[in-house]
Structures are given as C-alpha cells and as structure tokens.
Amino acid sequence: MSALDAARPVREATRASLRNDLWLAAALFVAAVLSTALNSVAGIFGDDAPGPEWGLIYALALTAPLAVRRRHPGAVAVTVAVAYFVGMTARVPEVYVGNIALFVSFYTVGAWLTDRRRATIIRAGIIVGMFVWLTVNTFRVAIDPSDEALSQAGLFSPFAAYMLLQFLVNAAFFGGAYYMGDRAFAAAEQHAALQERTRDLEREREVTAAQAVALDRVHIARELHDVVAHHVSAMGVQAGAARAVLDRDPAAARTALEGVEQSARSALGELRGLLETLRTTVDTEPVDGSTLTLAALDDLVAHARDHGLPATLTIVGEPRPLSAVTEVALYRIAQEALTNARRHAGPGATADVRVRYGAENVELEITNTGRATLTPRPGLGIVGMRERAAAIGGDLTAAPRERGGFLVRAEVPTTTAVPA
C-alpha cells in the first residue's frame, strides 16, 4: 500500500464492489478509446493533436487505476489527476471520459479514506493543481497570436467569458465531488457506528440473559432443596418411629420403613430433576422461595383478576396428591403464562386455567384471548416453562391460537405421588 493510503478505508470493499470497479474501469476504457477516435476525426484540437497511439496510452492511464480505486483511493486519485493534466496539456483529443474518471477518483478519496486529514490534503492538492493548470493555460492562450483564438477585445470579451466559464464549471465540478464524497463517508461512519451499537446491545442482551438464567437456577434449586429437605426430614421421623417400635410392633416398624423407602425414592427422583434442570438454560420470573402447590392456583387466578386480567380456574377429574416438585413446577408454569397474558394480550383479554387429572398424567392448560403473547422467536419465559416441564418428565406446548390469543399446555406424568 502506498503512503497515500496508509489509513484503511472506512469500510471494507466486498467482492462484488471490487468486481464492479473492474467493470467500471473496462467500460470507461472502451468509452475513452471511442471518444478519442471520434474527437480525432472531428479535429477538436486540429493538427496539434498527437497520434492515435498516444490516445490509447492516455485512455489506459486514465481508466486502469479505477479498477483498484477502493483499495488505494489516494494513489488512484493522484494518478488519474496527473494523467488528465498531462493529456490535456498534450492536447490528446479526449475531453469527456477524462472528466468522468477524474470525478470518480476524486469522489472515492472523500468516500473511502479513513484518515480525513490525508483525504483533505489529497483533494486540496488536486484542486490547486487544476486551477494552477487553468491559470497557466489561460495565460498561454491569452498570448497566442493565432487568428483562430477568441477575441480579447473589450472589458468583457468572448475570451474572458469563456475562461470565466471554465473556472466556474471546474469549481462546481470539484465542489460537488468533494461534498458527495464527504457525505458518503459520513453515512458509512454512521452505519458502522450503528452496527457497533447493535453488537454491543447483543452482547449486553446475552450477558443479561445469562445472569437471568443463573438467578433462576438459584431460585429453582432453592425450591427443590425445600422439597428434598421435606422428604429427608420425613425419613428421619419415620426411621425414628421404626426404631422405637421395632421390638414390640414389627408390623408398624415395617410400615414406617416402607415410608422411609418411598421418601428416599421420591427424594432421589426430585434430585435427578434438580440436576437436569441446572444443566440447561432456565429462566422465569423471580420467585419468593416458598414451596407452592396446585392448591394455590385459586390465589394465583385471583391475583390475576385483581391486576386487570379476568381469569377463571377449572379442575377436571379427581385431584390427587402429586410430588412436591411437580406441583411447584406446574404452579410456576401457570404463573408465567398468566403473567405473559397480562403483559401482552392487550385490553379486554381474558384467561382460563384448567387442570385435568388423568389416569397416569396431569395436564395444565392456560389459554387467553386477545393478542398472541409471544412473537415467533420465544422469549426467556417460554424457555423457563419448557425447562420446568422437562425437569419433571413432561412436555410443554406454547403457541398462538388460530382464533386469537395464546395457548400454554403442560402434560406431566403422575407416577411419583407423595406417600400418605
């Protein structure tokens, strides 16, 4: 990379943009060759024009650097400007494509160089060089004794008008290229800053989600710890009772030991559920750490009604005791579903909570009217509900309803009942 391009461009050129530069250079080369040939036939510079081979060289010097204009914007702009000045001074019969090539290279410096000081120096140098060249050319033409020159007679002669027009056109030409290049660079900077902010927000969201997961794992562990601690306490009491009656009432001791065995099995199953839950990503609303049961659904539904969501509770089948961890998980699923409905279903929405006791499973269903409570990309609440259901061996369905609203359905086995 040349010293003119020591700073990297403000944005990386894509393969497609580099291919487009090649096509642009090729198209301008063909146009420059055609323009030189036609202008030679038209005799734009008369007999002073050099031979056609110089026109070909000039066309190549003007357009070939544009193939790498995004990679080396500064060097390309200087090369094209020098080629243009030399060609015009040598009176190569091409006056159209050279202007286009000079504009493109000048614009590219403003749009692609990150080092703004370097970009300003390069463009200022080209502008100064152009107006110096115009001034010298004006002086040269002014002292040309040829009869074919424009008349210089009068205060505002045709010659003076023509030269003033040249200066004004060039001022507008370079001023427009300068402004458009700076605007393109500013837009690219804003886009890059927006992308960086988006990446920062995404990283922050991931950190926040990870923190929420860790916090909820603590809450779940606390709840399941309470459940397991209950079983262990019961085992201690039953073992003490068995020891007390072992000699005088073996049958009662056997019954107590069976209770110890059942409590141990239940505790192991719930510990397994705890480990499975803590291995995966879990997230729901914060909990108060208490051990909850399905009997508390009445209070949960009443709480939803008190906070603006008309809700009903229906029990289908004969309620029977479930393992404590199952009841806690189902309660939390119902709580999360009602919270989502209250937040997202909109005004006028209602909710219905149903608990169905089957022969070998229990089904919890929460439906609400109004808007669907989730977008196709599920949030952390849905993840938490799925993980709670999976931790107790069940399945969870969460999806918008065809007639509006949202459905959450959890189905779990009831094989681990609490011993009497």
Could you explain the architecture of this structure?
This protein has 420 residues and is α+β, with helices and mostly antiparallel strands. Helices cover 62% and strands 8% of the residues. The protein contains ten helices and five strands. It has helices spanning 15-42, 52-63, 73-89, 97-112, 116-142, 158-245, 250-279, 297-306, 324-344, 380-391; strands at residues 311-316, 351-357, 361-368, 395-400, 406-413. Strands 1-2-3-5-4 form a five-stranded mixed beta sheet, with helices on one face. Helix 3 (73-89) packs parallel to helix 5 (116-142), helix 6 (158-245) packs antiparallel against helix 7 (250-279) and helix 7 runs antiparallel to helix 10. The protein starts with 14 loop residues before the first helix and ends in a 7-residue tail after the last strand. The model is unreliable at 6-10, 281-290, 374-378 and 416-420 (pLDDT under 50).
